[in-house]
Amino acid sequence: MTHVGRLMLGVVILSVLLSSRLSLSQQPPPPAPNQVTVSDVKVRMSDHGPVVLLQAEDKTLPIFVDMTVALSIQSALSGERLARPLSHDLMRTILDAYGGKVLQTVITRKDGTYYGALTVAVKDQVKTFDSRSSDSIALAIHFKAPIVVARDLFDSAAKLPEKGKGAEL
Known about the structure:
By secondary structure, this protein is α+β, with helices and mostly antiparallel strands. The protein has helices at 3-18, 67-78, 87-97, 133-142, 151-157, and strands spanning 35-37, 40-46, 49-56, 59-64, 101-110, 113-122, 125-132, 147-150, 167-168. The strands form two sheets. It has a five-stranded mixed beta sheet with strand order 1-8-5-6-7. A four-stranded antiparallel beta sheet has the order 4-3-2-9, with helices on one face.
């Protein structure tokens, strides 16, 4: 999906969210026993391109992303502001302007593809949206929201971290 396509999708999502009212005091539900909450996120460059490393329970789940998402996540992690806003920066600015926030994202995998279930609250409405895992991770980091991974995915795909592998972005 192009940046313009993602931006258009973001505008549609916001217009749906703004059409109703629920309290923003709602918090994300605690992770279920079949879920793992990510404790740390890192972005690295690998031989296969940028990779986001989701860390929990002394294991790391690698998720490969495109360079734009990697830059967005890295800038959000470091607190660095880029010269021009990326799509995730724009979405955060729009949500902030309307009093919205990301509550959490849940990462799952089906048929070898990672998915994100991004939970967003605006005014009096809370909705969960299907998204690319990389986009939902980026937005969760921008809002300092929990990133949760399905336990079965984490147990099957996470690896023990390798020392010194991959360069930082």
